[in-house]
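Quick question: what would this complex look like in 3D?
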Amino acid sequence: MLVDVPKDSDFSIHNLPFGVFSDSKNNNPRPGVAIGEKILDLGILARHGLFEGCGDFSADAKSTFEQPTLNKFMSYSRKEWRFVRQQLTSFISNDQHPVRLDMPQGGLEALVNQKDSKMHLPCTIGDYTDFYASKEHATNVGTMFRGKDNALNPNWTHLPIGYHGRASSIVVSGTPIKRPLGQRVLTPGSPPMFGPSTKLDIELEMAFIVGKGNDLGSPIDISVAEDYIFGLVLMNDWSARDIQAWEYVPLGPFLGKNFGTSISPWVVTLDALEPFKVDLPTQDPIPMLYLADDKKSGYDINLSVSIKPQNSSCFRTISNSNLKYLYWSLKQQLAHHTIGGCNMRPGDMCGTGTISAPTETGFGSLLELTWNGKNKILVADAKSSSDSQDHYGYFLEDFDTVKLEGYCEANGIRVGFGSCVGQILPSLI
Amino acid sequence: MLVDVPKDSDFSIHNLPFGVFSDSKNNNPRPGVAIGEKILDLGILARHGLFEGCGDFSADAKSTFEQPTLNKFMSYSRKEWRFVRQQLTSFISNDQHPVRLDMPQGGLEALVNQKDSKMHLPCTIGDYTDFYASKEHATNVGTMFRGKDNALNPNWTHLPIGYHGRASSIVVSGTPIKRPLGQRVLTPGSPPMFGPSTKLDIELEMAFIVGKGNDLGSPIDISVAEDYIFGLVLMNDWSARDIQAWEYVPLGPFLGKNFGTSISPWVVTLDALEPFKVDLPTQDPIPMLYLADDKKSGYDINLSVSIKPQNSSCFRTISNSNLKYLYWSLKQQLAHHTIGGCNMRPGDMCGTGTISAPTETGFGSLLELTWNGKNKILVADAKSSSDSQDHYGYFLEDFDTVKLEGYCEANGIRVGFGSCVGQILPSLI
């Protein structure tokens, strides 16, 4: 093995997620693959001929991995994504690999320490869509605002509800988020007031990133939808509930969401996630033909949210959920998105919507965890607090740091997403 | 004058709108400016030194006008946009202009016929937002679906309601639009059915294109908002009313809109529109401080919609409206969009929403003109129809062609937008 991979690493040889990094030796953002605590520089490997033997792609591999984003690589097909993955597996695990033997330091020169690197957005995200595909989340929110009997809107079980989000304000994990200003109604029925959001929330989500795109007017059939998905990331869809509540009728969320959306830097491919496929929840009514999916189209991905207030020395987990609870599959989301003719481009991103577990220990937002600010939750216990007191909260306070994590584990194999982190900074006024 | 400009031309010397074109002699898309029936190739003019004398921009002008989009030019400030405009005015109108004297054909070599050219999108549109800023339109739609007493939602007069649209499916005038497939409910209360939209509509809009951007977390103050707007285009926000009606609660329009949005190819700058500024409608309640705008922030731009069914020999005008009716100004839209911290990038686009006049001859959608399919309208009279009969319609039929036009006129000066055209093609099934 070229690299020692710690047993509990998210970035085992079974993973090989793609990202864009830079470091002090070379501050050009460039494509890499995470392995253990290292990053493999794909440009260096391409220049040493590791990606020879895959048709037209091989002639283009050097230029593909010299780009500051992964869009060009994403625009290839699953065949090329798999080829690169196989070449990397062989390069890392085979000490007699001819390319390694040919490199002056046996391949070590292509390695960079993750801790010495800065991560960037993996791709230019042309368009960003956010779905609302967790039945538990939609039911919780609906129950809160419309009562238990009208919790789910009539359309919800017929199609994956989604909306267009803001692409410009998507940021990579580690980027601080400024508390947004805006209009909100402080007491029901009174006029709106201007000021900082007082109901700043998180949303535990994952997002898929589109690989190959489709032409305008040519929908992606669900039977081949997987070939159009490059991979997945963790996503925190920061939400200002008070701004959102006032503005969202009738055209949906706008300023309540577009001040920032954080994603994890490493894109885990569908091939790496293949061993962790599980059955979807039962879908009733049976979806229309264009949404008819294989039963085994869910993924068993453990997800968690943890929080560290300013006065605390460590993160405290406030929620444990799993992607397997998602009602609408990723393929159903993509097939629905394009059925009217909408075109997708390499690097476009689709969030799942908040992923809530069936029980309250796994709700994916503070809105649900505190039941819209009714029940406070423990965010830091006495042991970890500077003032030796338990700390409870409703929504996010200034300087809170939030961390999402996700991983799959089965038969001794671990494939993880790393983390998606963001700290809240005070508003401008 | 370098060029003869017909008296009724939209592209007088007072206009000088920017666009991206290609032609049979050079099929690289490149920036140009419309004048009369010609296009001035900005790359050629830059290479002949027309843009010398404006600081850093001058050194960069050649590269700026060799781009396949206008984004780089848009990323400069109003100072550079004005400088280019002034240089062009002088180049066109002054027969003794030194750059013209220096060119072998006296400047004629920079001219291309519009009729021999193909127009492209003027810029890469990173994000597209659509507002809902016409009180007449919002009131009409509200009255139709909620009754006269609840026509406007409580938030509508407090802020410019808007939502994120789909950037990938924005197309330039002339691109056909395929009728979308999707889920829709045919009779109220019955389950949704899958099929082609039967309520395909237009929306008469304009859109502003962002010039200089702002950083995430740093709102654009309304007092300087004009400096961030490069110019305006006509926009047809094609809408499938049946798909939209079923899907839009609670997150807003999605597949009902994202199958295509058409814009006119020539971006008319705010400087060209300056002489046509008029007072905004009275705003009640008085907007919050961050939305406090100069009274004279409207624009008197005559707008029309015309339609040509397959069996007709000519376009028939079905609506005459005007941008001056818009309740929320462009500056208010931009200030609101960024107040929570959302960042804008050069080339981002914001639609106004449907611009409806106070009376029904100027409603900006078939939804309003037919009052949701209750009253049919004349789309082709007997004289222009192949079968010598009047033709009436509700929503768009296959092969209908729709044309939006817009122009300003005052004191013998005309500044126009050309047209935004699109033909409906049959759905896939």
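Answer marked as accepted. Residues 216 and 322 of chain A are 34 Å apart (CA to CA).
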